[in-house]
Design brief:
It is built from 13 helices and twelve strands. By secondary structure, it is α/β, with parallel strands linked by helices. It has two domains: 118 residues, Enolase-like, N-terminal domain (Enolase-like, domain 1), CATH 3.30.390.10; 236 residues, Enolase-like C-terminal domain (TIM Barrel, Alpha-Beta Barrel), CATH 3.20.20.120. Helix 9 links the parallel strand 8 and strand 9. 49% of the residues are buried.
Length: 376
């Protein structure tokens, strides 16, 4: 079946998990000559990047794929990466490749009548761990503790929070406050739940010595891992931190492609590698990184905190892997999770079921696409 049309839709929506702040993603719609449609997304995050992604999708990459066989997914992925060689496989180009690749897998699955995880090689799990993820309110920590209490009541087994609602008030800036916060959270959720703390490593708020100190400070609270403790590009510091401390390190959501993931995996500075199929070259890219992770006997988690399409892609990747430990999941209703699709993801006892429907397993409501779609 040939590809007949490729469209990109810049989307702006209020994010309830961030007190209604406007966030951005880009959706891609690919239509086959028989009318079958596949959808994908990228977490383009900023308004200008979202608009730029649309241009690369429709003017740069779509002409490569129109009238080509829709089932040649990896061939198309390689052609797209070959095309962007001059302006690079990272940034906005990676967003565009990711969204198109995800849509191609959705279309291929629908065309063949199979869920994506089977096309990836087989379904190994019936359900995957949903890691409830939200943002600390560092200025109203009673609210934050209330969220953790509610997550425990909802049946989650793994919970994660971090950063902060404002750049001036984030986790990691105050040693005594950080320790007290984690202590209170652990007391609230008890010993049974796994707890992850996410720090703003991309903002370089901890140097190596501070990170070592904070890791040791927090050891009594048995964190499953501490996420992004250091500047992501400083792999040597991550390795030295890992040698000096006991708590596992999670990082990787800022990586883009096979080369950068290979460097991270071989650095000796990470235990749990994050990846986002809506950022790092889609499902096809993630498959390659996961194989490297499995070969090194490391673990990975899906950084998927945008729309139900990214959630779906992550579910299928985890269903096909022996080393995926958990995937981020928004615990409250959100427009891109609950309005965008007619069959939103619902966690049950801390898990998401692996759906048997063809493709990604969700149906996009095109009226909602129109509702949140914006132009320059």
């Amino acid at each position: 079946m040939k590809i007949s049309k490729i469209q990109a839709f810049p989307m702006a929506y209020p994010e309830p998990h961030y007190k209604g702040i406007e966030r951005y993603i880009t959706l891609v719609r690919i239509e086959g000559e028989d009318g079958q449609v596949g959808w994908g997304e990228c977490i383009s995050q900023f308004r200008e990047a979202t608009l730029a992604t649309k241009i690369i999708v429709e003017q740069g990459l779509a002409p490569l794929l129109i009238d080509e066989n829709a089932l040649d997914v990896e061939r198309h992925w390689r052609r797209m990466l070959d095309h962007v060689w001059w302006y690079g496989p990272e940034g906005v180009a990676a967003f565009a490749v990711s969204a198109i690749d995800m849509a191609l897998w959705d279309l291929a699955g629908k065309t063949l009548g199979q869920p994506v995880c089977r096309l990836l090689g087989g379904q190994l799990h019936d359900k995957v761990v949903a890691m409830a993820s939200f943002i600390f309110d560092m200025e109203n920590f009673d609210w934050t503790l209330g969220e953790f209490r509610w997550l425990k009541e909802q049946g989650y087994h793994v919970v994660k929070a971090g950063w902060g609602m404002r750049p001036e008030a984030v986790f990691g800036l105050d040693r005594n406050k950080d320790i007290d916060i984690v202590r209170q959270v652990r007391e609230t959720i008890g010993d049974e739940l796994e707890l992850i703390v996410d720090t703003p490593g991309a903002r370089n708020i901890w140097d190596l010595n501070t990170a070592i100190q904070r890791f040791r400070d927090l050891e009594p609270y048995r964190l499953r891992w501490i996420e992004q403790p250091l500047l992501p590009s400083d792999l040597d510091a991550h390795a030295r931190l890992r040698d000096a401390t006991a708590t596992p390190i999670g990082t990787g959501e800022d990586e883009w492609d096979l080369d950068s993931y290979r460097r991270l995996i071989h650095s000796g500075g990470v235990d749990v590698i994050q990846m986002d199929p809506g950022r790092c070259h889609g499902i096809t890219g993630c498959r390659q990184y996961i194989k490297l992770i499995e070969a090194e006997n490391l673990q990975w988690s899906a950084h998927t905190w945008s729309s139900a399409l990214n959630t779906a892609a992550s579910v299928h990747l985890m269903a096909n892997s022996t080393h995926g430990v958990a995937m981020d999941f928004k615990p409250h209703e959100s427009p891109m999770q609950h309005e965008l699709v007619t069959d939103p993801w619902i966690q049950q006892a801390g898990y998401l079921a692996v759906r048997d429907q063809p493709g990604l397993g969700v149906e996009v409501n095109e009226d909602i696409v129109e509702k949140y779609h914006f132009e320059a």
